[in-house]
Amino acid sequence: VVILEEKAMNAPLEGIWFFIIVFELALYGALDGADLGIGVLSLFARDEKHRGVMIESISPLWYANETWLVVAGASLFGAFPLAYAIVLNALYIPVMIMLLGLIFRAVSLEFGPLSRNRGAWDKAFAVGSAVAIVGEACIVGGVLSGIKNDGEVFIGGPWDWAHPLTAFVVIGFLFGFTMMGSAFLVMKTEGATQRKNYSLFKIASTSAFVMFILTMVTIPFLHEFFVEQWLSVPNRYYLVLFAVVIFASFALLLLLSRSGSLERAPYVMSIVIFALALGGVSVGIFPFIIPPSITVGSAASPRQTLLFMLFGVGLLVPVILIYNMYMHGVFRGKVRE
Amino acid sequence: MPGFFTPLMLSRALFALTTIFHMLWPLMSIGLALFMVIFEVLWFKTKDDIWYRHLRFWAKVFLLTFGIGVASGVPLEMEFGMNWARFSKTAGDFFGNILGFEAAMAFALEAAFLAIFMFGWRRVPKAVHLLSNVMVFFGASLSAFWIMGANSWMQVPTGVSIVGGRVNIVDYGKAVFNPLFGVSFSHMWLACLETTLFMVAGISARYVLKGRNAEFFLRSFKIALVVAVIVAPLQIVVGDISARKVVAYQPAKAAAMEANWSTNPPGTGAPFAVLALPDKEREENRWSLEVPNLLSFLSFHTLKGRVPGLRDFPPEDRPPVGLPFYAFRVMVLIGFVMLFMTLWALEKWLGGRLVSGVRPRSGLFWTAWYLGSPLGFLATELGWAVREVGRQPWIIYGLMRTSEGVSNLSAHAALVSLIAFGAVYTALFVLFLVFAGRILERGPDFASPVPPMRSGTTARAPRMPRGGHP
Fold first, then answer.
1. ipTM score of the complex?
2. A106 in contact with chain B, both atoms CB, cutoff 8 A
3. Rounded to the nearest 10 degrees, how much is the dihedral formed by the CA atoms of B319, B20, B239, B367?
4. pLDDT exceeds cutoff 60 at B1
5. Are A172 and A213 in contact, with CB atoms under 8 Å apart?
6. pTM value?
7. If residue B305 lies in a helix (H) or strand (E), which one and from where to where?
8. Closest by Cβ to B86, choosing from A69, A153, A335
9. I want to staple B370 with a disulfide (CB 3.0 to 4.6 A). Which of A72, B205, B238, B452 is the partner?
10. pLDDT tens, B106-149?
11. In Å, what is the CA distance from A137 to each residue of A220, A321, B303, B328?
12. Rounded alpha-carbon distances, angstroms, from residue B213 to B36, B206, B254, B352, B354
């Protein structure tokens, strides 16, 4: 009874923490997502010079951007230890793939400029980025497709995450992060590189959007629970509203990036779409943190920890944002060859 | 050895491998960050551009260590969930919370200001640049602070109780500021400084030996020496306090560190084994070289202090003995060697003989310092081996066994990840040596123009810097 009472008192705090973590992940996707997307795009660069400009545009920024992954991971660990334990245990292989990809991305950016064989390191950077995206997508796909657990520990097998839904998510992430990357490059470059990224951006954003819709349509077929939850009143109206907003945003994105004169619009709109998509999915599965078995309530730390962390971590998020905005401001402007 | 190919042992091996590798980089980045603060302050104060050259030279090494540090640190955070899910589930309320503090307060700070410090030379005014430099040092140190907080709690888990299979924090203050925290953080932080001092001094000694940029590197050497004069003796004092805390709070670990099997009877002193061959089956040392009463003295600063021996603990609660025993001895020995080298250099300096031009007569001195450059790394890694192996068989001392903390894993997945990380980290280590070697081979850059650092506080918005790394 005491535990139940505590759970009830926790309710708003658990929700707050769930959405703080979603916010941290959104920032990670918007910032490091662009870095990783640029890694994939660098495979298609016309020559060394263009590839150099692309890498240059992120070389001061990537580690600060990767910070958000670490902050989100640690927030999840502290606020929802049960979810952290079950998710990372179940998704051992995808997480390993992501980690190895991130290591390759990082060290090739560090070693490349010192190497006599720059080309090989630039390739390692591209491959590392792509591998990291695939790993991250498999994690998300794995969570959405369901994780077997007994409420305490993971009880499935190591390959459970390899599900058709995960394939959709992987393709969607590759296009989605490439969308971020090309939009960022449109903002940071000029001339031929910029023009090329305008066209890549249109392909990537359209494909990403299609994959997102496909994924969203598939989820209810996997977990009947969501059919009930999403189609109940008033949720069905919110669902319609969400669909209208995200379709309208996508139309606006295509419209604004058509002119070619608004250099920031593609990146801004990509972030809006990404945040809407992530926010939509998160609201859709809430209060589950591992759908459809573990809720935020059953995974959460006690109230005291959630409160303590709210001051030590949650309230710091805006502070981190402020000095990161200053840092990004220091490096604003075009990258030239 | 089928016993090794279990998820438990493979997970332990993976964690050992990844922490041993990761430890190398913060060991350099905290110390180098302090050097860079010193150089930048000297540059602004004296307006002598030679300090700018020092700053840029060591910053190049710093950037290389930072990148690998980030890349190898993220896996550690994830491994708690991947390989130690039951531990994470049980202890996340406190442990994950502290890692959250580390990420949000320290790591984020360091990463953002490092960008400004490294790439913002012509973009921000003087004050902002120096502030970024200080923030990098502060962020790196704060990272160590919280990580040591989390680890010390695993050693002495005060302020909590276990309710329904989960750690429940009874007293936050007691859990964070547990009895080991202050001394452990100090010991580690000083280790970071001392390791870097000896690395910088060792590299400088190499240049002096070769007669290349000798004047330049004599300056780096002297700066390192000034700090070492404070750090080297202080570290021995803190080490002593730290060891006595272990005796007080983790007696089984202390007994293993000293290969001390039997408790000394009242009225007698416990002898200190300088060397020994511990035998787990016979519960004694096959042979040992002992100094009477010294262990009582070291443990309690009295000649007859009662030091519990391993036989006082049930066999299933005893840590391994051989590794902690020898690792501890080598670490302590290195600490004294470092102190001796510092005093040697100080004596030379005060005698006016610490100059770059007299190669033949001081060849031994500079060679010793050159060979001393990896000493700090070795001592710190050994110290961690004592701390972590000595904590066994517990993952949270006295509360949860390591075997209870492991994930539901297939041995195959664990083995493949161990091999993958082993291969990748070996390659990274070799590549680091190659590329750091290139930075050192190229030597300091005296040709590039010194950036005109402006006063004031407003950023200007010029173009992006060219050529990747500065």
1. 0.88
2. yes
3. 130
4. no
5. no
6. 0.90
7. none
8. A153
9. B205
10. 888 998 999 999 888 888 888 899 999 999 999 999 999 999 99
11. 19, 25, 63, 45
12. 19, 10, 47, 20, 15
